[in-house]
Each structure stands twice: as structure tokens, then as C-alpha cells.
Amino acid sequence: MAGQIVAHEIGGSLPGALCGSHLGSLGLHVTAWRDHPDLDLPRRYGWDFSKDVRSGPPSQEDLSSADLVIDGRPLSAAPIEGAGVVCRILGDWDAGIEEMPEVVVQAKTGLVGYVGRGTEPPVRIGAPVVTMTTGVAAVQASLAALHWRRRWRRPCTVTVTAVGAALTLLSNNVTSESDPDKRDSFAAMQWGEPERGFQCKDGVVDFSFYRDDGGFARFCQWLGRPDLLDDERFASLAARFQHAKELNAELRSLLADRGVKDVLAELDKAGAIYSRRYPVAELPAHPQVDFLGLLRRLPWDGREQVVVQVPFSIDGVRPPAEPIRHLTGER
Amino acid sequence: MEAADLPFSGVNVVDVTEGAQGPFAASLLAELGASVLKVERPGGEMMRRGYGRPQKRGAPLPILSIARGRAASVELDLASAQGRDELLRLVRMADVFIENWKPGTARALGLSYEELVRENAGLIYLSASGFGPAGPFAHLGSLGHITAASGGLASVSGTSQALPEHPRIALLDFISAMVTGEMAIAAIVLRKGAGRGVHAETSQLESAIAGVAPVLTAVDSGTDPFGGGPGGASDRWVVPSSIFPCAAGSFVAIHAETDVQWRALARVLNMQEEPAWGTAEGRWRDAAGVEGRIAEATRDQDAEVLTRRLRAEGVPVSVVRRFVGDALNDRKLSDEHVAWRHAGDKVGWIALAQPPWKFSECDVRASWPCPALGAAVAPEWPEEWQRNADELASQGSG
Predict the structure, then answer these.
(1) How far apart are CA A167 and CA A184, in angstroms?
(2) Interface with A, mutate which of B46, B55, B199, B209 (most A CBs under 10 A)
(3) Which residue in A288, A307, A317 has the most chain B C-beta atoms within 10 A of its own C-beta, making it the best mutation to test that interface?
(4) Local structure of B322: helix, strand or coil
(5) Under DSSP, is residue A160 helix (H, G, I), strand (E, B) or coil?
(6) How much of chain B, in percent, has pLDDT values that exceed 70?
(7) Alpha helices in chain B (DSSP H)
(8) Is A239 in the B-facing interface, judged by CB distances under 8 Å?
(9) Of A68, A198, A214, B78, whose CB has the highest number of CB atoms within 10 Å?
(10) Per-residue pLDDT at B325
(11) Contact between residue B168 and residue A115 where contact means Cβ atoms under 8 Å apart
């Protein structure tokens, strides 16, 4: 089916660009129409691959003959006529996507409230997770609508919103914090500051001994503090959760002078769920990322640019990120 | 429109996943019309037990939201011959099978892709793991925030003066659920009917790295002003795009990407500009200067009033809400993005986030909460659900 589907991406939105790239990698023939193809933010995000890119607006004929139009234009733009499926990407039901960039959606939905300290000015989640999720939702919606059209042989418009995508990421919180009784909500839960991980001598580690008292006991033994298990605050999973702040303070001081490699080896022996905290700059050298073949270097502007390919594989093959076919000026 | 008109009506899904990544992905299929059967271990999956917090009247809330839209929940001991036989019977009738076991578990149970396609030649088999099916980290256990640490997602947020921090939500669990949903839909739409089985695989690690992809690209090209670490409230690509203080302890988020938006912002704030700030590149190069000047101008302003003025001038802006419960006090936001569903007499009504998409030709909406362990659901529409549906239909969709 994929090889027969012609898609046009218009409006130059970031979620639309990601959507077009994923669909192009999945085998659709995607053409992105841009005002300034070389200056686009999508390119700098690494979200332009597996597509043609052309200058200027497409013709009405281009759009009306398309199976799919990925439409990231402002809310006031004229409707697309004649296409099989139109995927509208909006900021909210009454706002264009250009009115709802990442920081605005994070602020509007309260997403910023789950990072930083309540006593300090707000910060944001430092990667464009809402924009990315909106693009993923647009892929889902576009494919589902193409499927609907194939079944029912009628055109279909599907609309995706960035606010809706943000609230999807907050699904648990929507349920718990909408409840009239918010005392037991996520917002009220004590996390004991595990969010900064445990600083060791040469890096940061995160770990959990979920449902494994024996493993935690072994780890305490290695830390030279088997007595921690005698403390009723830390004697069971429930007690440790309740007293996470005190426990994490103890662990932090015990781990500060130890090397990451030694700590990870002991966590492994103790059966913990664990990881070293990888800085983004080190991801290209991450052994598992390398094994999975997730990253690819593509030519751009006389050099190479790293892009993250589609994050899944089908029958053992990852849908490949191909260099953009830059057709500026051609029709 | 009838439920039969939904995109995946008639698609049968057997879901043996636990947690959020697999179950929520299967929920997306349910909301698109698939009939999803939830298979749980004896006693119920992890979200019914230790991880089932917070609770309401003794019932774990997350599973009600995450595993929504199931036609039924079935308890099976898949380690037993009887349980396995029962699962195989279900698989023979299914279009899609979804699992998120640790790599190796499916084969140990005799339920690997190769084994199940012998029972059902056209089966779409979906695997969602922590680190992938093979490789040096594949054997590691996975929880969302731990895998996020491995995938860089825990290294990008926070103030620039402290260690990076995890957001205090199940962020990667839901990002990876959305990616798993994308994979599931792609497999169904692009490969179903190909005359043979399909095995699609994803992992939380791949989703984490997809989540930080733009940061990785910026770091790799030497253009990330924060070197891949936290940047506080500021953006890596656009200046100004940050959060600014207002009067009475409130804050606004402002984003001015274009020259037109920038000029409108400067005008509304009556702000003195530097000559170098006339271009996006100039503003990006002096981010601290630009955002410091804006903060001076917003500090004494009423956040709500300033938001209205900037919005009227076409500048993207929002008052900062400090958690989602606060945001949902906005009646319009709540009405448009939240559906109230009845979760049984004990729990009563609960709020579910609506799916992030609407279809013009069919009514795709938040379905019903996860049924009790071992229970079937007759999807009778509660009165309020019906009323919501009628209201939406009268407004037109899309």
C-alpha cells in the first residue's frame, strides 16, 4: 500500500515535518513545500528526511490529487479541497500550530510544573517532547485516516492538536488531578528528589529496587551499611517509598565517592533496574544505540547531520532515513 | 456514526502488556475502534498492585486511564499448559498480538513470533521492550525513568546551575506508548493483508532518543547553547522563547520566533531594543540580553492582562499553569480535552484525557475505563458520555 500513497506536507510546521519524515521512511512519497527550505527549523531539528523538499506553495492540482495532505498552516488558511485525507495539525482546537510552540503548550497544560522546584521560577522540559508527540500523533492519525478512507471510500479530515498531545503525556495526571479529592494525586506525591539521580565520582546513576528487598539488602551490604535495613523507615518497599527523601540522602552520601563503573557492577549483581545517566552528547557512542542502528548521518549543507531514524523496526528492518531530495525550483 | 465505522472496527487485539508503554498503545487502537482483550497474570498486572498509585477509594487510578477501552480482562497463567493453550485459542482469532515482556520471555513461554504465526499466519505481532530485542543492554530491566536516564531524556531538563533532573511524571512511559501506537498503526495499515505475519519491535530507549533528537542534532552540529544540558526555561533554537516573571508571583511563557512577532512583543512591552536584535540570529546570539530585558519589562505586569495583549498582537503566549490540575481549572480546556467516564459504583466518575485526534467522519473519543480484573465490559454509554457525544456531534467535528 505504502508505495502508492502520495503525500504533501504544507505549512512548514515542526510536527508536520516529523510526520512527513516518518511517513516517507515508511514508504509514502512525501513532498514538503516550504517558503525557505534552507532556513527551516525542521532541518535544524533533524526532522527533515525521506522526502522531497520544494520551494513555494503547491498547486491546487497537486493537493487535490494527493492521497494525503499534512497541513500545518494557520487556522485561518483555506480548506484543502479534493484530497483523500487531510491531516490538520493545530495548536488547539481554536489555534494554529504556529500559535502554540513548545514552551507555550508546556505552560498552558501545566507540564512545566513537573520539573524544577516549586519554590523557584519555572523551567521547561528541556527537549521538545510535546512537538515530537504531536508529530507522532499526526502519523497515527494520517495512517488511521488513510485506512478509514480505504475501507469506506470517502475523503476524511483528521485533526491533531499540540495541547491534546501534551495532555496525552499527562494522562495519569489528568485522571488523578481532576479528581475532587486531590490529596492522593500525583501533584501531592512525595518523590524524595530522586529526579536528579545519584552523583558518583565520575557520573550520575539512576536505579530502582522495585519489589526486591533481597537485592536492596545486598546493595546495602556492599555500601557498608547493612544496618539500613534495620531502620524501620527503610525495611520494606512501602516504607522506603514513604521515606524516600531520607533514604536518598543517605544513599547520596554513600555513593558520592564511588566510581560509576563499580556502582553499576554492584547494582547488576544485586538485581536492580539501573542505568548510568547518559548526556545527550554521548548518545552516538551509546553501545545499545549503536547496536540498534538508530542514528544515521545524512548530508546537509556541505557536511553531515546526525538524525534519529524512525524508532521502531518492522520484520527486523528499521524504516530508513534517506537524505532529502531537494527539488527547489523544479515542478 | 456507529462504532462499526471507526478506522479499526473489526480488528481484534490480544494485549498481554503491563505498565504503560504497551497498554496505552493498545488503548489507542481501542479508541480507533479495535476490540482489545487484556490478558493478565493471575492476580493482575503490575499496575493493579505496587505501581497502582495514586488510588481512589482503594482502586488504583493509573490503570483505569492507561488500559482503557478493553472489551474484557482475562486472567491467564501463561506459564501453565492450560493458560498457554487458552492464549493460543485467542491468538487464532486475533489480528494483532502485543507484548512487552523482557527479551527472551516470549520464547521461554513458547509464545514467540515464530510460534504464534504458526497458529495464525497473518498475525501482526508487536513487541515493546525497554532496550530492544538484542544487544549489550537488552537483558537489563526497564522502568521508564531508568531508561530515560540511559536515553538522554533525563539530562536535558532543569536549571543550568544544578544537576539535570527527571520530570516528575511518567514522561517516557507515555512517549514510548505513543511510539508503540505509531508502530502498531503502521503495521496494521501498511502491512495487514500482505498474506503473511508481521513482527514489529520498538523499545523505550528508542523512544527516549527520538524525544531528544533535536537536542542531539543541535549538539552534534555545535549549535546547542547549553551543550545538551538543561537550559532552564529557555529554548535552544529560538530567542526569545522562555518563561518570564509577572506581578503577584505569576509567570508567562512567551515565544517570538519571527521578526513580526518580535516587533509586536517589543511594542507591547514598550521595550528598548539593541540594534543587534533586529534579526533572529542576532537575538539568538544575545539570548541572555534579550530575555533579561524582557523580564525587566514583564516583572510588574498582570500575567492575564499581558497574555491577552500579546495574543491580540499575534505573539504566542500563555500564562504558566503549575500542574495539570491547575490547567484543567480552565473550563474550556477541560471541556475540550477531558471526558468523564464511570468506573463502577465503588470508584465513581473519573476523568480521562481525550485522544489527541478527531476524525471528521467518525466519532473517535476517549473510551471507557479499564474493566476490573477478570471482568467483561458491555460498553454501555453512560448518560454523560452520551450527552458529550451529542454535543460534539452538534458542533461538528474536526
Answers:
(1) 20
(2) B209
(3) A288
(4) coil
(5) strand
(6) 91
(7) 21-31, 61-66, 81-92, 105-108, 113-119, 144-150, 171-191, 204-211, 213-220, 259-268, 280-285, 287-298, 303-312, 324-327, 331-337, 383-395
(8) no
(9) A68
(10) 85
(11) yes
In one-letter notation, the amino acid at residue A226 is: P
- All residues of chain B having their beta carbon less than 8 Å from the beta carbon of residue A116 are 158-159, 165
Interface of A with B in 143-202 (CB under 8 A): 143-148, 151-152, 154, 156-161, 163-165, 167-179, 181-182, 184-187, 189, 191, 194-197, 199
Are A189 and B53 a contacting pair at CB < 8 A? yes
Is the distance from CB of A66 to CB of A84 less than 8 angstroms?
yes
pLDDT tens digits, one per residue of A1-31: 566 899 999 999 999 999 999 999 999 999 9
Cα B247 from Cα B260, distance rounded (Å): 26
> Which chain B residues are within 8 Å of A45, Cβ to Cβ?
213-214, 217, 237
How many alpha carbons fall within 13 Å on the CB side of residue B277? 24
List the 29-88 stretch of A: residues with Cβ below 8 A of B: 41, 44-47, 88
Whole-number Å distance between alpha carbons of B332 and A261: 51
**What DSSP letter does each residue of B338-384 carry, written as one string?**
EEEEE--TTT-EEEEEPPSEEESSS-----PPPPPTT-B---PPPHH
Choose the mutation target among A41, A151, A174, A273 for the interface with B, i.e. most B CBs under 10 Å.
Answer: A174
pLDDT bucket at B240, cuts 50 / 70 / 90 = very high
Considering only CA atoms, give the Rg of chain A: 24
- In this structure, how many other beta carbons lie within 10 angstroms of the beta carbon of residue B92? 11
Q: 3-state secondary structure string, A273-299?
A: EEEECCCHHHHHHCHHHHHHCCEEEEE
Tens-place pLDDT, residues A109-167: 999 988 887 778 899 999 999 999 999 999 999 999 999 999 999 999 999 999 999 99
CA of B33 to nearest chain A CA: how many angstroms apart?
A: 10
Amino acid making up residue A81 = E
Distance CA B253, CA B108 (A): 51
Give residue for cell 555545535: B222
The pLDDT-based confidence of B273 (bands split at 50, 70, 90) is: confident
Closest Cα in chain A to B61 = A176
The predicted model gives A97-103 an average pLDDT of: 97
Query: Out of A120, A279, A291, whose CB is closest to B152?
Result: A279
